[in-house]
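Here comes an entry:

___
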Amino acid sequence: MRLRSILTFWAATLAGTAAASPGSAAAVPASPAPVRVVTTLPVYASILREIGGDQLVVSAIADPHEDAHFVRPKPSFAAELRRADVFVTTGLDLELWAPVLLDKAGNARVSEGGPGHVTTYPGIKLLDIPAAADRAAGDIHLYGNPHLYTDPLNAIQIARNMVAGLKAVAPERSAVWDRGLADFTVRIHRRLFGARLVELVGGETLASLARSGKLHSFLEQTPYQGTPLIRYLGGWLAVAEPFRGKDIICYHKDWAYFEDRFQVRCAEYVEPKPGIPPTPRHVARLIDLMKTRSIRLIIAGTYYGRAKVARVAERAGASYLMVPFQPGALPGVDSYFDMVDAWVSGLGEAFKGGKA
């Protein structure tokens, strides 16, 4: 009896010690596994990393150096989608290659209608919606221009749509997603308007004024301590002042939202119609237009051939600017913020330096 009592005592003691041990599974709850996200474009992956950090494992299907219209689906992409918790796509008719991959993956969680299927366009005012569905007009987008993220304010709405998807598949981490979204929003406001102006007026108020097209008139007419608020404008919009109201030539019709936000205009395109290579006749007409109207800058994504952009610019006596259209497309352009920096500073320097 005595031995049995001793064994019972030690068994109970060891059991209690094990339950209280800091290294035991019962004492330390396992960290939740990162949410696995696959995006169509590297830019969406970049924004997600800003929001979710190490709570996410993110990969993008398109290469930063390729045109998002013409990605070749590979079996490995379907394998990634099969394991994904969330899939992010533009949701218009930009990534026409995506449905094939989703079908091959057979993952109901991220298929259209599934909780982890995220489209980035809801809540964004779409531009360039064609009056008629006529493919003779080139590779047009029937639902509107899908290159949404060229406006930094659209990037905030894109982030909101992504967070809604993350909450649908991982609601227990909603506070994490909300903190990431709030931080991303503040950083966009500061980079777009300048930290001091955000401090004086508020980011949301400035964003609302910008969306309504009243930002500059408000800042010019509203004083703060005797000084017009326009003097406090900083960030990307201040860098963009040299090209505000100016005309440029764009290679493809992918700058509509950038034009709207930064008030620069693509007067004509190197492509005669979206997705259609330039013909000699169109190039001759384009060069004549550039000379007549003294338009001296062509802007193109890096995935268009530098040589053909350079040839057109040289014949017109103009300059050209090859810019990244995805994070990772150029050395040092690793994030969404780096990419917008490259667009705005590149144009700003071209106009300030007399090249445009």
Notes: Residues 174-193 form the longest helix (20 residues). The two ends are 99 Å apart (CA to CA). The chain has 14 helices and ten strands. Residues 1-26 have pLDDT under 50 and may be disordered.
